[in-house]
Design a protein that fits this description.
The structure is a single chain. The chain is an alpha/beta fold. The chain folds into two domains: 2-162, Rossmann fold (3-Layer(aba) Sandwich); 168-296, N-(1-d-carboxylethyl)-l-norvaline Dehydrogenase, domain 2 (Orthogonal Bundle), CATH 1.10.1040. The protein has 13 helices and nine strands. The protein has helices spanning 12-21, 37-41, 50-56, 67-75, 98-109, 123-129, 140-150, 165-193, 198-205, 213-223, 233-250, 255-269, 281-288, and strands at residues 2-6, 25-29, 45-46, 59-62, 89-92, 114-117, 120-121, 132-137, 154-161. The chain has a six-stranded parallel beta sheet with strand order 3-2-1-4-5-6, sandwiched between helices. The protein has a three-stranded mixed beta sheet with strand order 7-8-9. Helix 8 packs across helix 11, helix 9 packs antiparallel against helix 10 and helix 11 (233-250) packs antiparallel against helix 12.
């Protein structure tokens, strides 16, 4: 069985490489073909268009940036839909609109194919190491078909409901991520202001009730002033826009998330959108007039 992968960005490359290491026959496509070179050298075939990718493969994974990007990959002039046929399956690992997901799935069903929405969490490290958390929406049979392949890069894979449910759970995830990031940022600002060694402080609290993935994985990066992204500010903002739209539709007040969105927007205005999302702390540093970590010593 051939497995297709569309989108060789910060997440997609790692996930496709995991499929290769697991022994699957992988075909890849990316708008910028140079990003497929590493996978090609490792034995993957490279499709010229999404149409060609879908025609060659039984299951096609997608991981691109936003709702319009998924729409272009699937429904463009040479989109996946033109190569899909009865029995084929699309697994979308992008984080996009839940309502758009339902529309896309319905259009794909019209040509006899099926759709599973399966956004992921765990950053570029999780994609590369095969330890992602995957939130899956779709019919049970379709999810079961995709499961053996998602296991190549997913550690925790949860079927959360029908088509679109995976996307909504991912938005819940993103609220938890950014509000936790704000808490980590405020805590490390307090440590720095109090004259504490930030790295020692992180080690002291990370395994207790205050512990979190964000503190354990991004706290040390903050202490070293290392802003390399597991997930960029620009991508985080795209997800938060989806969160706030969903909150508006559902009438849910999201005060903390709204604050983080505005802080990230201020950093984007300064050209910092390519920094990792843990660079949220820079917005607080600018308010306080001091920096956290080794470069400030």
């Amino acid at each position: 069985m051939k497995i297709g992968y569309a989108g060789m960005g910060i997440m997609g490359r790692g996930m496709a490489a995991c499929l290769q290491r697991a022994g699957h026959d992988v075909v890849v496509w990316n708008r910028t073909v140079e990003r497929t070179a590493e996978l090609f050298e490792a034995g993957a075939a490279v499709a010229k268009t999404p149409r060609e990718l879908a025609a060659a493969c039984d299951i096609v994974m997608i991981c691109v940036s936003d709702t319009p990007d998924v729409e272009a990959v699937v429904f463009g002039d040479d989109g996946l839909i033109h190569g899909l046929s009865t029995g084929k399956l699309v697994v979308d690992h992008s984080t996009i609109s839940a309502s758009a997901t339902q529309r896309f799935a319905a259009a794909v069903a019209d040509v006899g194919a099926a759709w599973v929405d399966a956004p992921v969490s765990g950053g570029s490290e999780g994609a590369a190491n095969g330890t992602l958390a995957i939130m899956v929406g779709g019919d049970t049979g379709d999810v079961e078909r995709a499961l053996p392949y998602m296991e190549a890069y997913g550690k925790t894979i949860t079927h959360v409901g029908p088509i679109g449910a995976g996307q909504l759970v991912k938005l819940v995830n993103q609220v938890l991520v950014v509000v936790t990031a704000l808490g980590v940022s405020e805590a490390l600002m307090l440590a720095e202001a109090g004259g504490l060694d930030v790295s020692t402080t992180i080690n002291a609290v990370k395994d207790g009730a205050a512990g979190s993935w964000m503190l354990s994985n991004r706290g040390p990066q903050i202490a070293l002033r290392d802003w390399s992204p597991g997930f960029t500010i620009d991508l985080q903002q795209k997800d938060l826009r989806l969160v706030l739209e969903a909150g508006d539709e559902l009438g849910v007040p999201l005060a903390g998330t709204s604050l983080v969105f505005q802080l990230y927007r201020a950093l984007q205005r300064q050209g910092l959108g390519d920094d990792g999302n843990h660079a949220l702390i820079k917005a607080l540093e600018q308010l306080a007039g001091f920096e956290v970590g080794s470069a400030a010593d």
